């Protein structure tokens, strides 16, 4: 039962987190550096609504990714009890950063140094060594917008469907003093404020999609080299299901003596808004997309979540630490406070072209302050495809991919090797992805 | 919750993040907590006697409290603790010996009622200034003390003057120049 729970949790994490952290489930896409596949690909319609109208090209396939990374996780579940000798916070955190859908062949070594704390009456220094890299100078920011595939139907160019939308974001920052002390091993100083700020938010909503996608210009009838402009628009009527945000500040100010007789109080304040389904209101959002195919070149631009907002009736509460008793308390300030949440737009620009038997594809995706780009190549030799690619991840590190595909009739098998730095210390790891392809 | 513990959270988090067989090393500069005027003892003239005059144990630091980062033992298991002390002895005239003793206890116990955690024997030679360093491994009691949030420290001196009649009186001073404790802890169960 425990293993099933872990597996289910891991799958849920993969679904929710994977798009944000750059893990690609489709083995063909992984091998091509994570690039958006031409002809829409598995994620094409989600990132660019116009791909709904683009006819499947020759050799188009649907992928079925295999969760081979779950095998070692299920056979050897991580220890969750801190008193268990096998308990490893580092590996647990990395599992969250790097959902185990693909098999991790090379995982970064945990920091190998000791943690050294040096203290005296007027000085304190904490040397975390490599662990200090966990605290980047500009803070840690991550988030995701996930949209489940819509269940619905279409009539001619119009379509309607039901889907769900989930978004989360977290922004953790340390002030310069605390960052210097933790990341660089600077000595804690007297009469100095050390502060940590964390802003977290998350929301989920049901979405009724109404849209249109079709060719707005077509000048060639050739299936091999269509010359056409496709456009699409998708309106989303949203119904809020759950919402929460929290703005937390934790700080302390040292006195004249770090470890003198007077204690230093830890200050904590938090402003929290939350709502359940009963507090969920209506909202709306729009997606627009365009795909231009000309002379063998495919160019797509998709913008999702334009002016996406959801209305809520939230509970506002304040959490704080009592400086006298040291106890933490949360007090409701207002009930049914009108609140409007927003989801930042996601822009995806992709291009692809065939040069003989070689397919070249590239994309750039921007969401909030997070920009990623990818470039991928594929070449077929009979039933065998050789793929490679590279991408710039959210940490601005170049990651590489490569892999093979084999096709037998309408059935195919894909394997991919790709590097990633989805871990606490942003060191490079290597993963293996696999999946089946069904050719149309 | 005091900041001391908050700081420890980061240290413990780092340790746990490091995982494996890596350790948390806690270096405590005990001397920094003590009043510098209390860490030096001046003596003399101590006249000679057939077996040397013995001062008995005299307090240098009677009772000092040290605030540490509490809670080490709640997240880690102490593997080793050691304590070292250096003392500079300056002998102007006369020969003699001294023994410095360090006592440590929890906040509810008089440190001088517990066994000394370290003894530093010093031999004084006329006209010589010398540094003596003694290092010793601590026991479970010392490990527990440095795993806690506070401890008490007392330091005594026990001087014996020149032996034999007619020899020069002893004049000089002893100053503690370093008093450090190093605690090495690892994850529980390792």
UniProtKB/TrEMBL annotation, chain A:
Ranges of residues in domain DUF5723: 144-338
Name of one Pfam family that matches: DUF5723
InterPro entries: DUF5723 (IPR043781)
Name of the protein described by the UniProt record: DUF5723 domain-containing protein
From TrEMBL, chain B:
Source superkingdom: Bacteria
Name the record gives this protein: Uncharacterized protein
Lineage of the organism: Bacteria, Candidatus Eiseniibacteriota
